Amino acid sequence: MPLFLVRPQPGQERENACYFAKQGAAIVARHELELAEQLMEAYARPERLSAMQARMEHIARPYAAERIADDVMQRMATECVLTLPRCEWNLRHTAV
Length: 96
Fold this sequence. Notes:
- This protein is mainly alpha-helical and 96 residues long.
- Helices cover 70% and strands 8% of the residues.
- A two-stranded parallel ribbon has the order 1-2.
């Protein structure tokens, strides 16, 4: 879906908004009135919405969040496997 954004917050949110706008998949407005004008213009020109949707489909990364979570979990599992024997050894050889 094309994005219509108003006043993105500084930092990552604004950078993401700028990225999608540069890719032709988003409209970023400075205030609500500008957003309303952009929405009315877009709905008056269905070809513009279609083009924005096509751009979004082109840059989309389906299941990106799932892939990131899987990668984090895999890295955590690898680190735990590498450090677990050391932890067990410390527990067995610690004076009580």
